[in-house]
Amino acid sequence: MMDIKSINERIKQLCKQRNWSYYRLSKESGFQQSTLKTIRKETNMPSLYTIDKICNAFGITVADFFDDELFQDEANSKSIFISIWDELTVKDKEKVLIYMYGLTHKELKQDFDEIL
């Protein structure tokens, strides 16, 4: 299962690195402050969509987000992926597979980014 404490801590780290407040993150990500507050207070597990938008605001990929010692446990990483995967629709799973393929084939990443 996805660890909301680690996700929350990672968001805090990224804000601190950039000297951002949660207000700034809400403006940059397009989320209302109340959405970020539920993550900060660990009352609501963020979806992959939410994490992706937060990553876009920080200028990093979702892979970069999870590439931190907070998420280095391989079993935990697989568990996070499976937990997210199980929540996706068939159409969204297809998109994820295309995205993952694009990550491993850098020449296709630009084309994929233009599609989204």
Please write out the topology.
Blueprint: H1 4-18, H2 22-29, H3 33-40, H4 48-58, H5 62-66, H6 74-87, H7 90-104, H8 106-115
Helix pairs in contact: 2-3, 7-8
Structure write-up:
The chain is mainly α and 116 residues long. 74% of the residues lie in helices and 0% in strands. It contains 8 helices and no strands. The protein has helices at 4-18, 22-29, 33-40, 48-58, 62-66, 74-87, 90-104, 106-115. Helix 2 (22-29) packs across helix 3 and helix 7 (90-104) packs antiparallel against helix 8. The longest helix has 15 residues, at 4-18. The protein is globular, with a radius of gyration of 14 Å. The two termini are 28 Å apart. The mean pLDDT is 84.
Keywords summarizing the entry:
116 residues, mainly alpha, 74% helix, 0% strand, globular
Unreliable residue stretches: none
Residue fraction in strands: under 5%
Number of strands: 0
**Helix proportion:** over 70%
Number of helices: 8
Rg (C-alpha, Å): 14 Å
Largest sheet: none
Derived structural class: mainly alpha
Average pLDDT works out at 84
What is the distance, rounded to the nearest whole angstrom, between the alpha carbons of the first and last residues?
28 Å
Shape, per Cα inertia axes: globular
H-E order = HHHHHHHH
